[in-house]
Amino acid sequence: MTELISRTRHAFLVEQFDTIPAIRHVLDVSFPTASKQIDLMIDAREIEETPLELVRGGRPAKRYRYRADHFHGLALYLERTYLQYRIHDVSGHLIATDLLNFDSSDHGSVLLKTLTTLLNDHPSIQTLAIGVAGAVDTTGTILFAPDYPTLDGRPLQQELTELFKRPVIVENDMNTAVRAQASDNETTVYVYLGTNGPGAGIAVSGHVVRGAHHFAGEISFIPFDEKRNVGQVLATTAPHSDDWYEALCRIILSFSVTLNPDVILFTASDVSDDGLARLTERCAKRFPLDKLPRLRQGDWETDYLDGLMQLSIQSFIEQIPLGGLAR
Predict the structure, then answer these.
(1) In sequence order, which residues have a C-beta less than 8 Å from that of residue 40 and are 6 or more positions away?
(2) Is the pTM of this model over 0.70?
(3) DSSP class of residue 225?
(4) At what angle do helices 3-13 and 300-319 cross, to 10 degrees?
(5) pLDDT at residue 56 in the model
């Protein structure tokens, strides 16, 4: 597949263009070159011409529709005792979703069994995006996941790609969630307290920040006092206690004096609106109020799946051969 085909897919699926003049403009190519990409995609049954539509001056404009319903992706994340998945088409429309509970500490086997079943049942799935709670590098190797011993240290992305013969993206949970909320002109931090200890995703100008050792956002290691870190405090104190609020303040202030983000999100199940107000008031006693990031709620599960779906669609655009994988 050529770069021009990838960019043409992006024009259809992400930028929502549907005419040759518009696509020619975004590709910055000649009309014949843009027309050739369209013809190739029609021949490969990725797009189809729609009925002519009269435009100003009475000249009909040819429009095209991407056959997104024929190409699907899978977004799936794994937690300690359950997994949740979303099957979607490459325009982002929902095909199926489910939450599956399990009673096993062998997360690797649970994941492989589930993926095998889903791919057998849905052969139109072209790409997979898998989210895990752990430090993950850019190759999809899990560098640090102590709560998932059967996944810790594994080159999971490479293993799954070779096993299932299709592109797989493996990503950290918070990097994925913040991707769904990231903006091109803002710095965004997404904090989740969760069942595996606190973690954060960081995005600057729409780009996820991983750090030199892929450890950015491991906020449980922020010091709290001489003997404890923030993760230990949150694990041993009741929600809404003084130490609990103080631990969250340490997180907010740590980001405020380093990245000074535009916004810090907390998942709604972790911190209420009243809790966010209390945190703002508490932090403002130690940091200028007008320089504090906005604190607001996020829907973590939805953002997590949305971020994974974005990765799955991006993988389809960039990696899947013209016409899609054979079924």
Answers:
(1) 5, 322
(2) yes
(3) S
(4) 140
(5) 58
